[in-house]
Amino acid sequence: MEELHQLIGRICLDHDNDEDGLWRTLTETGLDRAGIPERFGGTGGDPADALAVAAALAEHGAATPVADQSVLAGWLAARAGIRLPAGLVVVAGDADLRSENGRIHGTARRVPWASRAGHLLVPVATAPDRTAVALVRVEQVRVRPGRNLADEPRDDVEFVAVVPDESRTVAAPAHDILLHRAALVRAVQIAGSLRAVLRMTLRYSTERVQFGRRLSQLDVVRQQVALMAGEVAATSAAVGAAIDQLLLADDTGATRFAVAAAKVQAGTAATAVARAAHQVHGAIGVTREYPLHRHTRRLWAWRDESGGEEFWARRLSALVHGADRPLWETLVG
Amino acid sequence: MEELHQLIGRICLDHDNDEDGLWRTLTETGLDRAGIPERFGGTGGDPADALAVAAALAEHGAATPVADQSVLAGWLAARAGIRLPAGLVVVAGDADLRSENGRIHGTARRVPWASRAGHLLVPVATAPDRTAVALVRVEQVRVRPGRNLADEPRDDVEFVAVVPDESRTVAAPAHDILLHRAALVRAVQIAGSLRAVLRMTLRYSTERVQFGRRLSQLDVVRQQVALMAGEVAATSAAVGAAIDQLLLADDTGATRFAVAAAKVQAGTAATAVARAAHQVHGAIGVTREYPLHRHTRRLWAWRDESGGEEFWARRLSALVHGADRPLWETLVG
Amino acid sequence: MTTPLDELWRPVAPPDEQEAAAIRAERVRVREFLAGSLDRGLFAPRCDSWLGGFSPEFSKALAVRGWIGMTWPRRYGGRAASNLLRQAVVEELLAAGAPVAAHWFADRQVGPGLLRYGSEEQRDRLLPAMARGELYVAIGMSEPDSGSDLASVRTRARQVAGGWRVTGTKVWTSHAHRSHLMLTLVRTAAPDPGSRHAGFSQLLVDLSAPGVTVNPIPYLDGGHHFNEVVLDDVFVSDGMVVGTPGQGWTQVTAELAHERSGPERYLSTFPLLERMSAALAGGGDEVGGVLGRAYARLWVLRQMSTGVARSIDAGTASSLVTALVKDMGTRLENEIVDEARRWRPSAPAPDAPDGYDRLLAQAQLHAPGFTLRGGTSEILRGLVARAIGMR
Amino acid sequence: MTTPLDELWRPVAPPDEQEAAAIRAERVRVREFLAGSLDRGLFAPRCDSWLGGFSPEFSKALAVRGWIGMTWPRRYGGRAASNLLRQAVVEELLAAGAPVAAHWFADRQVGPGLLRYGSEEQRDRLLPAMARGELYVAIGMSEPDSGSDLASVRTRARQVAGGWRVTGTKVWTSHAHRSHLMLTLVRTAAPDPGSRHAGFSQLLVDLSAPGVTVNPIPYLDGGHHFNEVVLDDVFVSDGMVVGTPGQGWTQVTAELAHERSGPERYLSTFPLLERMSAALAGGGDEVGGVLGRAYARLWVLRQMSTGVARSIDAGTASSLVTALVKDMGTRLENEIVDEARRWRPSAPAPDAPDGYDRLLAQAQLHAPGFTLRGGTSEILRGLVARAIGMR
Predict the structure, then answer these.
(1) Parallel, antiparallel, or unpaired: how do β-strands B213-214 and B209-210 relate?
(2) In whole angstroms, what is the distance from residue A262 CA to residue A245 CA?
(3) What ipTM was predicted for this assembly?
(4) Cβ pairs bridging C and D (under 8 Å)
(5) Across the interface, which of B211, B297, B305 has its CB nearest the CB of D220?
(6) Chain B to chain C, count of Cβ pairs less than 8 Å apart?
(7) Is D284 on the interface with C (CB under 8 A)?
(8) What single string gives the DSSP state of each residue in A10-28?
(9) Which of D347, D259, D274 is nearest to D305 (CA)?
């Protein structure tokens, strides 16, 4: 993992502020499809590998759709038995989508990176526990570009009687599983980004001198950074535990609990750490030039994506209160 | 006001840890019945006088029923045209109380100081906008003693076919007005107590030496005490504005808004200031001997009495959303 | 026994009925003007409009109605109104998210600064143009390495015939690229190790003068309001020195202290709160409680802030209370952002089709500045601690 | 490149399936025991039961089942269990609000301290009695003027034939009035201005020895668990010195660091959370969100705390992470009190007829201690800042 982290660090450094070049190198190295079995168009490995790539890219502040492809599209394709075509493939899911006589109608809102994709993988519920997974060329749909707070593409995709290139049915309510995976992806990315923010703030505080002392010598700053460290450590621990749980079993109550808790923790930490980091940095931190915003704007965006703290906290509550055992036993798992 | 404050300070000092002596002196000086017109058994003045006495007593950490008598029982008696008998009189109100053929039934819960009272003033709704106010001797009811977090009496009072000594009907839903007055009393007391906690914490921090420095020289402590100062100042301002508003008009929307906002502020401050004060004081602050708990336990109790922050915040929201004008205009009043 | 603490709860008398009625009437005038402007599409309500909403047209329209420089004497184009009345007008404008950035610094601090320290000639020449909403003034205090520590300012002014030559660099200067003058803190004497605060002066630099270069410092979202202003041997005539050379530190400190507790310290996110209030009004008791807490806090801060305005009118203003209002107000501004996110699923984006999401995006992107500008929260609390006697 | 920060997110391998199964089985045993004890009325669940719930009977019942000193070697009455298994047992006991105060300090820190630093004779003699739940040990660290600053401890031990004579006063000593021994930090050499931490030693003082006076320090609600222990020329034999004279500071620091991240740092108010969870379960989505956040935080802290237990077993424990767990855990304990108040009208009182009100009263009255005991939050954050390289 340490080597992977360093490799990705080097790649990101080589392509600083060069999204296209970065994407090219990532596809050439196959890092964009880690964790996807080879027979489905990937480069092999398990979800933990794909998530490690996602975390490292986030930690290096890279703008890339890698995680959305490798962890989400890759998993859905494998689950449905579809081989991913070349180019970028992302999932376009939305409760608004429906299938009529094999044609897809409706609008998927705020689809990550749709405007950059060649193909979309489209899950459409056909029955309460059956999902059709369709592969659609991006030329077949209308994409209205949008963006999140970090200027990453979040595009509305309109389907009008689209006949997919390929469609396979999965015997599961795919939306729900995807939702948990998507939340875990964002939590993992947040964890990576938080680590970068902490490093950056620590470095700044030990270099910046004000009123004749380094910021890192001021007790008030020390307290703030220590609080940040707590949130960062907690998020890393939460995400690590959720991944361990996912590797153990894809879709149990314990996995759902762990993913939900990890996303709540990640969102909570994103808010607190971004605020403290800006407070310690002062004015320099809000400039376009200084790299802090590459992370804090993503933290502000990612905490809301795939369900914010409130959404997942309510799910946790429902898991606890829907279980036939005491709170404590559900918590312990 | 300054002289009143000093007078009460002297009285409290004379009767430190001597509740009975304190009460005797307060009744002898008539301070227990400030703000009640003389013809209703008081010593005259307006509600602001009674509230100033309440604030000063709270600031000096005194355990006394003065405010419950002078501001609440006094106002209700005057409103109903009942002359308060000698001895302690407090209001025993509860939605559970009902009047049948002139006899009172039901239980009033957690009545402040009932077990110390000679008489109870009992408002019972007889119609949506009519309230019977009855004067009842405490021998006529059953009192089950209880206490709040500060060990002040909060007693359940049971009425079984009680025939009051006197009963007068008021053409108003007295409960609601009383509720606002009661909230203002507790907010005023909280404001006084907060001032004492701030003084005490400031003094302690400038005297206590740790790691070779006074606590007041440590930035972390300075930040905490500054935050306390903000909450204390805000609560004093809120309570002052609410009293100004009350003197202007007893029961308008603006008065209700001000009282509700003041109680929300007072409760919020109580929590924050008590926590910070204990944190600055360390272990000495949690001992029975050190006087901090005389205030913090009352703050913890009073914030919940006559409606906590949540209760009054919801009321505020209802006032805003029930008004036929924009939020901003309601806020400005 | 009086202690410094008493300043925290010194009661301020409410305005009398006549003044209260005048304030109500003025509020109504402002509201009518704003409603009309909105109808005619003259502005879109936005968060943080005193920094982000720059509109010379709007400023001139306000000036015509007497809402710029309103506390200044009539002979300088003002209305000799009370600070309390100005406060009411500013509140109305900010609560509506109206674009007031163009004249903001001239109205809030440069004009009052000239009235306190400026020469008669300066007042005569500059204040009327400011009050007409035509003359905009930026503030040049911070420097690349100074941050909150203004005493480390290094921009130097060296005396020459008829004036001064100024060299140095100012940063974080809002709207310098569209302002006419910059009130600039400079060193007019070499640093004195024995007295960190000696040797400073305030000059009004003409931003169109030779030697002035204004470079944008793009904000984190790419927006442009901050600038770096490079002064390369810029000539400033003696007539543009504000106050007494060498007294710059005292002047700046007074300027900062008095401008801390205005409504811009608690209303930057009010347009979001209003939107939230409308969107969530039917959302159940729990959400009602959340909104009610924000209303309560805002109401309290308004009491404190108007109390300061009244005490400025009475000549008894407390820099202790102003620091508290700013600290608490800017915390509330942040809390509103947090609650707005929490209680409604949102996808904030600057160009979101939904107004809630758009206001939330503005508020979040600007939020880091709330607790930094005008003295960081930590510095303010340090001031408070000192003022109440912590040594 | 590795930095001190990496310690913050070093992954800890989860237990293997065999160990996981053993832990699950042990949890079931504890739950069955607790259910039976509750049925028989042996205890009433309470908040902060590790300080407030003193029951020799209950401690002995736990001991019989192997739940005291369980990580200690078998020859001293232990079970040679992993820290992870102990952690699971302690979690179950605290979550149930069971009275574990009597044996608490012996089990948590005195036993492990003796295993690290004690003599073979001490271990042989003392550990089995502790593991039987019969020998209770108080902790004598703080002094009237020392507070968090242990280096200012003034209790002196002077060497005499066969041992030491100890004179001084210890305060905040929980349960000294019903404990047998007190692990006492003393000066065995005069203060050395060059080395603040030199010259300390740890002694086990027999609390029934001549010269020992235990005076209650009533808690703010009148309760009695704190004591002042006055030592007046008390004889302590050489055999009761723990570790090396002069090394007391190192020993105490290690003791504090390792005992910081246990479940008692996040479960003190769990009985209240459980009650709240049951009472508010049907209370709408908003309240569900509030509860869910608390569950999430608790789950996260459990991951961190069990991670520390696993790393202690692996010999790689980080005092950085333990400090963080304590700081975050005790904040959560307080937040639970705040939320419990917020979402249900309450009238908390120690003798309230309603269980929710009663637990809330216990939690609120004990809350001030959460963020003070075992190192204040501010001190912990200072440790964290230093550990991650802030100089």
Answers:
(1) antiparallel
(2) 11
(3) 0.96
(4) 8
(5) B297
(6) 156
(7) yes
(8) HHHHHTTT-HHHHHHHHHH
(9) D259
